[in-house]
Amino acid sequence: AEILKCNEGSKVVKKEARNILSELAKDDYYRILIVEAGLILVPIIGAAAYKSLTPASRSWPSLPDGTEFERYSSVPSRFGASELLLGLNVQDEDARLEEAQKNAIVGRTTQQFLARLGAIDTEEGSIPDSQPTMKQQSTFLPWIDGVARLVLILGLEDVSALERAALSIADACINEHMRVLFKEAGALKNLVRLLEYDAEAVRLAAAHALEKLSI
């Protein structure tokens, strides 16, 4: 787990560590230990799937209650660089924010920026979108990035991605700390919306995730 949380290190070693953890995560006991160690299992769905992000998902950085930070420019940057810088420096913007709120803002801003660049799902050397096994692939991300990525996926239009993200959220809600992280990241409103989704598999997965979040 520590190998994957570190930004440095050999890609070969990280790949091997990821493969080992993927096997261990098939067992509920080890899956819980992996989450406790700071990693979340996140589905790889391909950068193309994020093209369906709605304008609301590309919004200016805001607090969990929807309150936006002051805009210094009315003209958005091409790939959201201004939003990224503001989101990453939220710790200096308002010292009154709780840690979970800060993490939610930083994680969401980073993941939205990667999606705009088309660089999301490529950080771990994921397989091409055209490969049929894409829907079975997953990776591990640190808490902040993993929570934000899963909530971001809940705003997409890919049925399989929605189901897998909701189930991943349910699996990651092993304690109150994780439940707070997902709630602050905006998972609740997205999951409630999915309760009316056309696909039954998505509705069931969303209900399961909400049940885990409400414990």
From TrEMBL:
SUPFAM superfamilies: ARM repeat (SSF48371). It comes from the Eukaryota. ARM repeats lie at residues 186-215. InterPro entries: ARM-like, ARM-type_fold, Armadillo. PROSITE patterns: ARM_REPEAT. This is Uncharacterized protein. Gene3D superfamilies: Leucine-rich Repeat Variant (1.25.10.10).
